[in-house]
Design the sequence.
């Protein structure tokens, strides 16, 4: 009886999950008799088994629900109310089942409330039914109970329903989307058996042991060189690998089984919140390790609730912003590069950047000055911090951000990462990246201070060795060591320091970094180098959970037994990344900016420009100093992800932006212009790179086309000057805080003072396109010299942070000179604070604009020079 | 726990740690082994000597000298294997002694003046002919606070 009961509980639970999904579908598609028959049959099966096992409460409930569904079959419309009552009934059945599981018997209580509701719904159905109820059912030898379905009726249902297997086989749970095909399903039910999870776990453990033993044998043979063991060992190795794969496969389950409840949850949420929500599930067949599946079920549910509650607006709000009233939540799973990616996205209002920022500052996660330097994307990451919540009111459903730290922890535990992308007004997308398998991973074995450690290969991008005078130099910003790797500066984490052990000593007795190996590691979007003394080899290791006494050490994720029998710790790249903290990242960002500023000094009169062709035969040009690099990549490496062309570029995904409608090449070489800002890169797709020329950038004909600043004569030929600023946001929506449309205005003269050629080159074409004659100066002194020489300007635009003489001092000097005392001065700064604004006002600044706010700058100029509609 | 109930004779595995004699209820002891190829765990609590591979299982080795606040008297080390909540631990001792069968009636509460560090992990004492035998409580012994995160 015990086993029978357990079997019943398991099976009924599975059936009920299907009923949930099916009912929601039925409500949307009430004419689908197939769905209805399926539900009817499932509920009937529950009822039948209940009677057999002597479970009166369950039987009565299932029975009453079945009756109402019988009415649906007879054509009664499936009203929201009716479906709600049935769903409530199913919830009650689940409750009873839960206690049945624990207590081995039905709990005390009455279900007369629900049964009465169900009856009243059934009563309202067509009258002829009542007659039938009153008749005596021949086979039963007694009158039908109210609402009971006659055997004939039942027979009909069974005849008409295709034979469906029990819906949630371990091997192949019924896909919520489409019913299984008849023949296939019959076959699968004959060929699959139920195996307890424990058995599979045990098999997995055995395989792990086998892998370890094989590794040990391999190690021995490696030491002894050629031996007669080699061939059989090779065979053993293959068999072990196959066995490992086979057992892994049994642990795999389609992610759809974790999604079964979601349509129901969303339906209830939509109802409770008064919203219209459409849930799209994609890739339900993607398989995940059972253990992983258990770990992500709750995080996914949480994110789904968040999206429904806080992400999506009410229908009225959506209409007001020009969106369709029905919100859309999309859950997608797919494989990508050895990972499983799960995306939860909505088309709601997006994260509230300002509120997150304020909260992060209030919680002391970041200083106000630092926060101002952070990009929106960096600010959004704060929602994963422990105890972080921006919800002003925590609703019954959730609070935006509440528990995202818990979500992250859950995902960390399975070695995954989570990232968030949000565009104000357009929605939020969470991207979860999970390694394919858990228990056995490839790892890089390294040595630090005489001890060996394993670093999961999945996080390792490349290995470099730092040498004095070599390509890969170690530099220092204040006390922070960074690695110059090609064009990037990577923060370095010294494992010896992080672990508090002595690393290899240099001549000065300090830990040597020169000559050390650097494991370039990527966690989420963060790339950094882990400094180790030496690197051995990669090895397949079996991850063993750490002792509970050691689990609090953030630097380790587990331990393992190596082929030689010794135990080593597995380094947790997430822990290392966190230890780097934001301070180092800020240093590195600052250094990268400085590096960009040090870029070649351009002649004041001429600009170096890159000529290229894209889309048409007419040459196009872009200031060379804006381009980080020219690349030619193999077109086959271009991947289509999320509807966009991407290329894996130096360990990161770089979006490709096309300037024309022409498709990206599918074969051959594809030339690209790479633009970088800080850690982000994007590439413009071009047809052909023509030349690099030095010429005056004199935009003569403005352009109405987005993406083109105007035309200039370059080397005697009319050339389109490309507005890079137009394309950057196409790659990353938040590249600039605001989009804008520049307009041509009457010719006014501007003195642009900025010590950075990067910004001068960036702003000059923009201002020229807006109709201004621009004279650039690289320092405050240079600017004052121009005034001194008698030149006059309608206004001055100056950077604040400059060496020698800053923007404030320049403004004061301009004010002091009668020739320029009345000239409006607009300051540009990457940081804007009340204190700075106040100081600027005292110095005599007219306006203050954030450095990337082109629209703001143009608006300020129009106001100060009296040009435009305000005049 | 084997002591203190209706049983009259309790068996203890005895061990010397820092010159003192301790007893562990024999029911909790899985084996006695010589720790080899110990892997130090950086950032671990000081009482954790390291981890090692004992016949395919990863065992966390607890340095009893440190745990009990005693001074190490010998270089040779052995370990007593115990289990707690499915995890394997080794208690590092100086020397393992004989198994003693003692009458539960002689079991006494800890003297009030016992070092608090010892009292915290001991369930009581036996007064032997030449020694005091301090009975260790394995559960409390393994209740080690995690190291302060570095």
Sequence:
């Amino acid at each position: 009886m015990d086993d029978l009961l357990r079997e019943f509980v398991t099976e009924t639970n599975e059936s009920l999950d299907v009923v949930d999904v099916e009912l929601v579908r039925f409500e949307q598609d009430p004419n689908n008799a197939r769905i209805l028959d399926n539900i009817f049959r499932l509920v009937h099966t529950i009822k039948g088994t209940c009677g057999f096992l002597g479970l009166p409460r369950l039987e009565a409930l299932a029975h009453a629900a079945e009756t109402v569904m019988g009415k649906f079959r007879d054509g009664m419309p499936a009203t929201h109310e009716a479906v709600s009552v049935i769903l409530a009934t199913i919830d009650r059945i689940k409750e009873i089942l839960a206690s049945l599981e624990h207590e081995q018997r039905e709990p005390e209580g009455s279900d007369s409330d629900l049964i009465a509701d169900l009856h009243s719904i059934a009563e309202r159905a067509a009258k002829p039914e009542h007659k039938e109820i009153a008749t005596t059912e021949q086979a039963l030898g007694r009158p039908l109970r109210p609402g009971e379905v006659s055997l004939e009726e039942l027979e009909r249902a069974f005849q008409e329903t295709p034979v469906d297997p029990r819906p949630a086989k371990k091997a192949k749970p019924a896909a919520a989307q489409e019913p299984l095909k008849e023949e296939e399903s019959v076959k699968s039910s004959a060929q699959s058996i139920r195996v307890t999870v424990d058995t599979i776990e045990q098999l997995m453990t055995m395989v792990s042991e086998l892998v370890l033993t094989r590794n040990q044998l391999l190690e021995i043979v490696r030491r002894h060189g050629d031996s007669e063991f080699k061939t059989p060992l090779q065979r053993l190795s293959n068999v072990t690998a196959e066995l490992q794969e086979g057992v892994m496969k049994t642990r795999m389950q389609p992610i759809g089984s974790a999604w079964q409840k979601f349509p129901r949850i969303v339906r209830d949420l939509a109802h409770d919140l008064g919203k219209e929500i459409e849930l799209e599930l994609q890739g339900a067949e993607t398989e995940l390790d059972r253990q992983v599946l258990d770990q992500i079920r709750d995080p996914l549910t949480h994110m789904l609730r968040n999206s429904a509650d806080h992400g999506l607006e009410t229908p009225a709000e959506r209409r007001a912003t020009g969106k369709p009233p029905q919100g859309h939540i999309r859950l997608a799973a797919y494989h990508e590069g050895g990972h499983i990616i799960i995306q939860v996205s909505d088309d709601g209002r997006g994260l509230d950047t300002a509120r997150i920022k304020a909260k992060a500052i209030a919680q002391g996660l970041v200083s106000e000055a630092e926060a101002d330097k952070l990009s929106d994307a960096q600010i959004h990451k704060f929602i994963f911090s422990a105890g972080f919540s921006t919800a002003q009111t925590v609703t019954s459903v959730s609070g935006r951000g509440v528990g995202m730290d818990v979500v992250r922890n859950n995902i960390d535990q399975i070695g995954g990462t989570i990232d968030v992308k949000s565009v104000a007004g357009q929605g939020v997308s969470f991207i979860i990246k999970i390694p394919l398998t858990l228990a056995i991973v490839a790892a890089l074995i390294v040595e630090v201070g005489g001890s060996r450690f394993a670093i999961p290969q999945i996080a390792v991008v490349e290995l470099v060795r730092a040498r004095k005078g070599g390509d890969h130099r170690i530099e220092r910003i204040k006390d922070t060591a960074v690695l110059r790797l090609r064009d990037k500066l990577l923060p370095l984490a010294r494992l010896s320091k992080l672990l508090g052990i002595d690393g290899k000593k240099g001549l000065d007795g300090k830990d040597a970094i020169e000559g050390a190996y650097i494991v370039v590691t990527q966690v989420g979007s963060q790339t950094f180098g882990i400094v180790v003394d030496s690197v051995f080899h990669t090895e397949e290791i079996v991850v063993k959970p750490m002792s509970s006494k050691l689990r609090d050490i953030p630097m380790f994720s587990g331990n393992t037994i190596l082929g030689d029998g010794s135990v080593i710790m597995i380094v947790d790249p997430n822990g290392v990344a966190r230890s780097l903290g934001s301070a180092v990242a800020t240093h590195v960002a600052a250094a990268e900016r400085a590096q960009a500023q040090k870029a070649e000094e351009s002649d004041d009169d001429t600009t170096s420009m890159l000529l290229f062709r894209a889309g048409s035969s007419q040459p196009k040009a872009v200031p060379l100093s804006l381009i980080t690099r020219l690349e030619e990549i193999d077109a086959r490496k271009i991947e289509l992800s999320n509807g966009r062309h991407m290329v894996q570029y130096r360990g990161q995904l770089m979006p490709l932006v096309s300037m024309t409608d022409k498709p990206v090449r599918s074969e051959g070489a594809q030339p690209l212009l790479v633009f970088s800002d800080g850690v982000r890169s994007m590439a413009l797709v071009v047809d052909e790179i023509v030349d690099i020329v030095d010429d005056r950038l004199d935009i003569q004909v403005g352009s109405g086309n987005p993406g083109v600043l105007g035309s200039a004569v370059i080397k005697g030929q009319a050339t389109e000057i490309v507005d890079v600023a137009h394309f950057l946001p196409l790659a990353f929506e938040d590249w600039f805080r605001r989009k804008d449309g520049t307009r041509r205005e009457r010719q006014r003269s501007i003195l642009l003072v900025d010590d950075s050629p990067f910004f001068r080159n960036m702003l000059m074409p923009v201002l020229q396109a807006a109709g201004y004659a621009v004279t650039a100066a690289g320092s405050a002194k240079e600017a004052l010299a121009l005034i001194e020489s008698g030149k006059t300007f309608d206004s001055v635009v100056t950077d604040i942070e400059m060496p020698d003489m800053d923007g404030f001092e320049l403004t004061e000097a301009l004010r002091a000179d009668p020739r320029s005392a009345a000239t409006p001065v607009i300051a540009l700064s990457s940081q804007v604070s009340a204190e700075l604004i106040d100081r600027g006002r005292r110095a005599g600044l007219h306006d203050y604009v954030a450095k990337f706010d082109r629209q703001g700058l143009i608006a300020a100029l129009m106001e100060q020079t009296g040009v435009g509609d305000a005049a | 726990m084997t002591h203190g109930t209706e049983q009259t004779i309790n068996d203890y595995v005895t061990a010397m740690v820092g010159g003192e004699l301790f007893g562990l209820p024999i029911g909790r002891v899985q084996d006695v082994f010589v720790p080899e190829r110990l892997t130090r765990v950086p950032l671990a609590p000081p009482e954790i000597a390291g981890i090692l591979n004992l016949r395919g299982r990863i065992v966390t080795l607890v340095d009893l000298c440190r745990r009990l606040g005693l001074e190490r008297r010998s270089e040779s080390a052995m370990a007593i294997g115990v289990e707690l909540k499915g995890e394997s631990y080794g208690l590092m001792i100086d020397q393992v002694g004989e198994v003693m069968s003692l009458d539960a009636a002689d079991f006494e509460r800890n003297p009030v003046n016992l070092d608090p560090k010892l009292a915290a992990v001991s369930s009581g004492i036996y007064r032997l002919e030449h020694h005091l035998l301090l009975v260790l409580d394995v559960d409390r012994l393994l209740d080690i606070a995690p190291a302060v995160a570095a």
Observations:
- The first helix of chain A runs from residue 2 to 28.
- Chain A is about 40% helix and 25% strand.
